[in-house]
Amino acid sequence: MGEPHPKLETTDLSRTFGRGSAAVDALGPLDLTVAPGEFVCIVGPSGCGKSTLLRIAGGLLRPSTGELAIRTSSPRPAAMIFQDYGIYDWKTVLANVRFGLDIQRVPRREANARARDWLARMGLADFASAYPATLSGGMRQRVAIARALAVEPEILLMDEPFAALDAQLRTILQDELLDLTQTTRTTTLFITHSLEEAIVLGDRVLVMSARPGRIIAERRPPFPRPRSGDVRSAPEFTTLKSELWELLRPEAVPA
Fold first, then answer.
1. H or E stretch including 215?
2. CATH number of the structural domain 1-45+62-77+154-255
3. How far apart (Å, rounded) are the C-alpha atoms in residues 75 and 246?
4. DSSP secondary structure string, 3-42?
């Protein structure tokens, strides 16, 4: 049997903002494939087009040239998680997690059951009736993750979801996400500035250049799955982090 078809594939993808002399080439050209069930992390300097790529994948932006294809059996294959949580202050935690299911017109009883199941998985079962303003940052991000996974997406798009959290909480949520995605095997495209985060979570780590962002390197963390956060203490972890930084550092320094 041959290799499975990619779940996500870009071909000569680029994005330019503005026109004429004010045009800014933000991304590409970029070729990328993500296999079914693969967790791909992308690191790169600020402004290199990482978030632009994710927004194209999520259908929020159109590419200027090239194409991005998602092989899917669902009309809404992707769920997206942002750094700023993206949850609604006026809805309860349960209603926030149920939101995508409501859009899909899942019957209310089933939608509530699925939402409560994901709240339980995220340790939020006791907060179903609470409002986001009463939650900590880590709890709000758990709500955002539960909402995304409740719709059983074929692709999970995550744009620096833990960047606003303190280091300890960030580590905890990384480990929780690692457990969840290893269980669900959801295809994931994950944007981060953190090399540690990319190595812990990723099947592959892609390094992007300065704007316009292109993929300049690819590394596979040498840790088989299932893996745990204990890989942070492995010598190979430190070696790979140093190697990635040497690739990234020239791109991160302004010309």
1. strand 215-219
2. 3.40.50.300
3. 41
4. PPPPSEEEEEEEEEES-GGG-EEEEEEEEEEE-TT-EEEE
- Which of 25, 69, 70 shows the shortest CA–CA distance to 213? 25
217, 77 in Cβ contact below 8 A? no
Give per-residue pLDDT as tens, 176-225.
889 888 888 889 999 999 999 999 999 999 999 999 999 999 999 999 99
Ramachandran assignment for 66, one of left (phi > 0), alpha (psi -120 to 50 degrees), beta (any other): left
If pLDDT is split at 50, 70 and 90, which confidence band does 63 have? Answer: very high
Burial (CB < 10 A; 0-12, 13-18, 19+), residue 117, is middle
Q: How do the domains of the chain map onto residue ranges?
A: 1-45+62-77+154-255, 88-152
Half-sphere CA count of 217, side-chain side, radius 13 A: 18
Q: How far apart are CA 40 and CA 34, in angstroms?
A: 7
Q: How many CB atoms neighbour CB 167 within 10 A?
A: 10
Q: Report yes or no: 229 and 175 within 8 Å, Cβ to Cβ.
A: yes
- Angle between helix axes 93-103 and 137-150 (nearest 10 degrees) is 20
Q: Are 201 and 158 in contact (CB under 8 A)?
A: no
List all residues 6 or more positions away from 253 whose beta carbon is below 8 Å from its beta carbon: none
